[in-house]
Structures are given as C-alpha cells and as structure tokens.
Amino acid sequence: MESTLQLQSLATDLACSKCGERYGLNAIQYFSTCCEKPLVVNYAQENTFSKSELDGRENSMWRYSEMLPLTDNLNRVSLGEGMTPILPMDRIAKKYGFTNLSVKDEGQNPTGSFKARGLSMAISMAKELGIGECVIPTAGNAGGAMSAYCAAAGMKATVIMPRHTPKPFQDECRLFGADLKLVDGLIDQCGEMAAAFQKETEAFNMSTLKEPYRLEGKKTMGYEIAEQMNWELPDVIVYPTGGGTGLIGIWKAFHEMIEMGWIDGAHLPRIIVVQSLNCAPMVHFVEGNNAGGHYGESKANGLAVPKAFGKDLIKRVVRESNGSAIAVSEESLLRNAKELSRAEGISFSPEGGATMSGLLDLVTLGVISREEKVLLINTGSASKYMDHLQG
C-alpha cells in the first residue's frame, strides 16, 4: 500500500544524541562512531510545516511525512500503520475513581503492535539506501513486524528470537517468509548474534536504537496523541518500557511540535516508565542504582530487555518530564491485562496490563492524582499472548 501523495521531507542530517556530531542522511548509518550512542534525525530549523496542512491527509503515520526522513515516496513500504485510536476507559475509570483515563491502542496496527511504525520507517529507509537484507534481534513483536515489512519490500529477513518466546510470535515470522533463529537466552544474547550475523552477511541490523530510523516511525505516536487530543496533551503518559524507543520518540515528537508552534511547551506530560519486577534495569538506572540485579524472563515479552542501548535517553526523558519509573509484579500485569480487556473490550497485551499496574501503584504512592488526565499506551494486542492470559 503506497500513497501517491508527494510530501517533501524536511530532514537535514543525523546527530549523535550525546555530543551532537553530525552524520549524513544519504549513507547507511547505525549508531554514532564518536560516542557510540543512538543517532537522531534533525529537521530544517526554518521549518514552516503547519498543522493546518494535515487536513484531509491519509489516515496513517505517513500524514507527518515532512517530519520523517524518507526522501522519495516511491520507497515507502506501508501496510497502513498509525493513527491508532485513543479510547476512553470509562468502566475502569469509574471502578478506580479516575476522572479522565484513556488508552492509545497500538494493538490495532499491522501485525498487532506499535512495532509496525518503526519497522515501516526503517524498511522504507533500507529500501531507499539500496539494502536487500535485514536482521533483527527481538523479544517477539518486532520480529513479526520486520518480517511483514521485508515481505512487502521484497527483502530477505532474518529474525533472532529467544527460544522461550510464545509460539504465535515464531509462527508469524515464518508466515512472512523470514529465516527464524532461536536462542537460549534473552534479547541481549539475540543482539550479540545479530551483530555477528551483520558482520558475516552485511545485512542491515535493525537492533533497537542501533539504527536511527525505527525511532522516527515510533515518534509518530507523539504527533497522533497531540492531534487526537486537539493539541492539548495529557498530564501523564504511562509507557511499558523495554528498549524505550517509543518513549524516546514521543518526547522527541513533542519537542519538534514545540519548535513548530503546534503545542505549548509549558504543559508537557510526565512520562512514566513501567517495567516488570523480573526485568527492571531502567527502574534501577533512573533511581541511580547502577548495580541493578538479576534480569530474567517476563510474560510481557517486550519488557524483558536487560540492557537498553538508549538507557541515557530514557533517563533523560523521565527527568525532563518530571516523570517516574516503577516495576510491577508479573501477577499484577497479567491480572490487569485480563481485567482491562474484559471491562473495556480492548485487547490488552501483558505490556499494556503493566501500565495499569504501574498507574495504580503510583496513585497509592501519591505520585499521580486520580483527577489528572492519564493516557496509557497499550503497545500490542493480546492475540499472541493467549497462553499467558488464560483463566
């Protein structure tokens, strides 16, 4: 599915997220060689893109094409990702005493998760740069998304996944023709194998934040939140955090919109990081506990990320937004995923359930008020997690 509408990207270059050194857009880039940190895309300072220009545009993330790095629309690889709904959660709000509680349901994306955004963008850029083969380490959903977009682009896909990942995630990759490799370990071991595979084959490595394009697709969640909420942002955004690309992207989008005069920079939401007690490295890092602990599996696959390459950026977002980080129990996140689904008719993944667990804990701690406008991010559908959500 490709739009015929030609929209000119305003991207200028890439920059190291730590020191700001610039890199070109027209060559294959991974992370910065200066500081070995994630690269971010810069856009023209004299940007005159007006939000009124969005009227009548396609109902996908590509409505914001000026603020995406793809330069030739013919290279777009799209399956209709983005513009997922923000849905009220009135029954749950009433039960727990919230005044204004809603969810952005990313499970309505292609392949059932928010990963579609980042992989649509990254595969489109890979096509533009002449790449024919891609590899990704994944906890589940990213592998399925890359497999689908590589199939749409006619590219070869290799997916490296923990062996304990539920079978529906594995089957999805195979369905789209990917070469699936299973690893005894977590996603950090998968990442090591992907790096070795990249050196061996020269496949483009889609590891989280070790290339600059998935971030740009994920940031469109931030643009949509602003547009769908009539340019008045919530007080609090609760985000289930593994590698953190979406969280970093949402914050990047908010600052881009401030620069363009689309939103008021004085009223940005507090960003809440939620992780599982089984794997909470970002909670420990934000709290200044660099010693951390033992990080294991989670029924919320996407939260089982022992080493986040973008950890400095995640911590920066939490600090700049006056946000918080909290870890919740496995029992709680599964219980809440089921309760939310049954109460609202929305397919909540375990990661989505974790956001409610974190919210309720932070209300108890007095960090969040029930009177605030709260937005949960449900990063994926429950459909691939049914073995975990029975009963």
What tags apply to this protein structure?
single chain; 391 residues; Rossmann fold; alpha/beta; 34% helix; four-stranded parallel beta sheet; 12 helices
List strands and helices in order, with pairings:
Layout lengths: L10 E6 L5 E2 L15 E5 L42 E3 L1 H7 L3 E6 L9 H14 L4 E5 L3 H13 L2 E7 L4 H9 L3 E5 L3 H15 L2 E2 L8 H5 L1 H9 L7 E5 L4 H16 L9 E7 L4 H6 L24 H10 L3 E5 L1 H15 L5 H15 L8 E6 L13
Parallel strand pairs: 5-13, 6-7, 6-9, 7-8, 10-11, 10-13, 11-12
Antiparallel strand pairs: 1-2, 1-3, 4-5
Helix pairs in contact: 2-3, 3-4, 7-8, 11-12
Net shape: globular
Number of helical segments?
Answer: 12
Strand order of the largest sheet: 4-5-13-10-11-12
Over the alpha carbons, how many angstroms does the gyration radius reach? 19 Å
Corresponding CATH architecture of the domain at 86-113 and 214-385: 3-Layer(aba) Sandwich
Mean pLDDT: 95
Order of helices and strands: EEEEHEHEHEHEHEHHEHEHHEHHE
| Percentage of residues in helical conformation | 25-40%
Taken as a percent bin, the fraction of beta residues is 15-25%
Distance between the termini: 39 Å
Structural class: alpha/beta
Strand tally: 13
Query: What would the CATH topology of the domain at 86-113 and 214-385 be?
Result: Rossmann fold
Identify the CATH class of the domain at 86-113 and 214-385: Alpha Beta
Instruction: Summarize the biggest pleated sheet.
Output: 6 strands, mixed
Low-confidence stretches: none
